[in-house]
Each structure stands twice: as structure tokens, then as C-alpha cells.
Amino acid sequence: MFVFEKANHNFRKPILTLGFILVTMLTLFFDNVDSYAFTPKKEFGSSLFVSFFFNSSLSEWFTNAIYLYMFADNIEDVVGHFYFFLLFLFFGILANLTYFLFHMNSIVPIIGTSGVISGILGMYFVFFPNVKSTMVFERASFRDVPILISLSIWILIQSYFYIVEFHYHTRSTYAGQVVAFLTGVTIAHFFVRNKFLDRLEQNIRLSTFINKTVLCPSCNKPIPAKKYGRFYCSSCNTNFFFDRHGKKFL
């Protein structure tokens, strides 16, 4: 199953998102990629911190790059470059540690960005629940599905795969993906409840509009506005900011 986000415009340049995509592409040309893979039974080393920058094949990189391009740029836009960098590393390390906890004696190495992407999807799930998406299955596709629904189905499928593979004692990274997703959801809720994002409003210089409207970042509904600052969209229950540079923050 694939989930494709429909246009969700960001206003901060996704420098790190594009940088991470480029780095993961360059690692495809490394020799002996397995030496960078994380293996639980071996001693912890640099692989704990770098294995999620590598991919096992071009097709895997391409899939992960698409997900990063569609979803990570909006998370970077909301939390800023610095926190996005920390979150990227955190989710990657968390996925590796989860694999270690579930398979301590495993000699099967793992690489890939799936754990990072799962954490980012978890945050997207909270920040942009009403953004429309397209769900693609093997023989069917569904359009204009709210992210809240499509990602709920996605994480249920990942959980099912993990349960099946756990039953058959198969080593997999599905547990890391599920844990990273749920952690991303938790972190995003923490940001919202502790008004972390509201602090961005302190840097907004209030000014006066003249017959202006702003578009909701989730549903693109035009909303009349007289000042820069916080706005609320009654159609999709989205709160966002709009500053003098046109930047929107959920």
C-alpha cells in the first residue's frame, strides 16, 4: 500500500529534506554497504547512527525519496530546520534500537530510511489530518482520502505485518516502523499541547490587510483576514498562522 499526499504547500524551503534525499542517493554508490548496516548482535558502533542513510536498492531509495519529498518538507516547514534535523536522527536511531530490543541476538543486518519516514508520517498524522491523499493498493486506488484515514490504515497494515512475522519468528523492521510512527504522533501532540508551535507567533509582526484573504493550508478554503497572526478554518478545524512573509504554520 502507498499513500500519496495531494498538494500541501510549504513556505519554508525544505533544505534539509532535499539534502537528506541527496545524501541517501549518494550512499547508493558506496562499496560494501553491509558494513554500514546495523546488526544487533554486534557491538554498537557508528552503524547505529548512519544505517538509516543507506538503502538496499535503487527501488527502495526511490520509494523512500518520494515519501520524504511528499511529507518531510511539511514537517520541516512546521518545526523548523534545527528541530527537523534532530527529529530525523532521533527517529532513525529509535527504529534501530527497537530492532535491537526485539531481536537482540539477531545477526541479520538492517539498513533503510523506513523508520525515519514512519516517525515523520506520525507527526504529519497529527499536524495535517485533513489534507487529502490518494491510497494506492495493488489493484485499486482511492482518491481524496483524508490523511487521518489513509495513515490509520497504513499503520494498521504495518502492525499486521509485524504480528505475522513475529508469529513465524521472522526478523523484520516493522516493529521499528510502528514504534517510530507512534512516537511521532506523541511528539506532535506534545508540541501542540505545550504550545511549542505558538511560540512562533511571537516573531510575527502584526500589520493590517486591505481586503485580503488567506488560504487554509489543509483545505485551501479562503478566509477573510485583517491582520497577520492566528487563523481558524471552520471547514476542516485547522489552526494556522500567517505572517508578513506568507508563511503558514499549523
Automatic annotation (TrEMBL):
Coiled-coil boundaries: none
Gene Ontology MF annotations: serine-type endopeptidase activity
A GO term from the CC aspect: membrane
UniProt entry keywords in alphabetical sequence: Hydrolase, Membrane, Protease, Transmembrane, Transmembrane helix
Localization of this protein: Membrane
Transmembrane parts of this sequence: 12-30, 50-70, 82-101, 107-127, 147-168, 174-192
KW Ubl conjugation (keyword) present: no
Domain Peptidase S54 rhomboid: 47-192
InterPro entries linked to this entry: Peptidase_S54_rhomboid_dom, Rhomboid-like_sf
GO biological process, one term: proteolysis
Name under which the protein is recorded: Rhomboid family intramembrane serine protease
Origin species: Leptospira noumeaensis
